[in-house]
Amino acid sequence: MKENSNNPRRKFLNTGLKAGLLTAIGAAATKAAIDMDKAYSAEEETVELMTPEGKLIEVPISQVQEMPELKDENYKVREGFPNRKFVMVVDLARCKNAKKCITACNKTHFITGENAWLKVYKMQESKHTAPYWQPTMCMHCDKPPCVKVCPVDATFKRQDGLVLIDNERCIGCRFCMAACPYSTRVFNWEEPKQGEMTEIHLQMEDMGHMGHEMHSPDYAGFPSVKGTVDKCDFCPHMIDQEELPHCVTACPNGVFFFGDAYEDTVTNGDETFRLSKLLEEKSGYRLMENLGTEPNVYYLPPSNRLVDFEEGLENYTEFESVEKPDTSENSEEL
What we know:
Layout: E1 3-4, H1 27-35, H2 38-42, E2 46-50, E3 56-60, E4 86-91, H3 100-108, E5 119-123, E6 132-136, H4 145-149, E7 155-157, E8 163-165, H5 175-179, E9 186-187, H6 194-207, E10 229-230, H7 236-239, H8 246-250, E11 256-260, E12 265-267, E13 271-274, H9 275-281, E14 297-300, H10 329-333
Parallel strand pairs: 4-14
Antiparallel strand pairs: 1-13, 2-3, 4-11, 5-6, 7-8, 9-10, 11-12, 12-13
């Protein structure tokens, strides 16, 4: 059920098919692989696949059908990547509020406003229950209420599960913010300040983004537009490079798992799990299931914790999600 890797930024959509399920090979090949027919495997190169039971087995390459390319000439931004259904799993037992996920998200999306797209909340149901840390982002619902209320079709749902915003269409009415039951959307009340813009341009140059087309809904990597709404987008620009979202790779504790529901597989870069089995064994759940939004973010309960809750208190700042640059007179002189 699990596969380890020493590369924390390994490509999750094209990993030698190790993270794939045994759904693309025939019955004869399956039997040959499980029986480990030495004569058959010795004549041909093999790859590892994960069976529906979560077991890694070797399969002859000739019997494996490769997944189609992420993009082809028919790719459309509002339709998304074909034959994909992206999901995220958040393991609350691992979170200690290190906030590396927030820092990475803010930096790579050039977030300078008052609210980050990803927040880590201090949660406690009552004074008699144990507190825990809960990372919260857009749930990318299958039945998103935000899409229904948008009067200009700025917010839209793609076939690959992503809910995105076209900032060139957004008129800032904030109906979507009112409709979202998870309160994960933010409004850009102002333009980035001069010092923030200087830092942004330096980051853009370092990351090679300066020549990229601006304001593309599936490419979040430029300063947000004043008077528009923003939110977590699952980093489609990273998916396009067959890499994991920034929050997943930045987390030092492996809290976030990202993957494809059609492949029934999720990974944090070091560990790979069969999605359905992980949710069943760890009692996975989704927030506010009774609303019928059918979110694509799953949570694993904070039981058998790997870290102490108190370790995260030193990084906790209530209601503050974006570290603001130092704009004091001394810093300007420097």
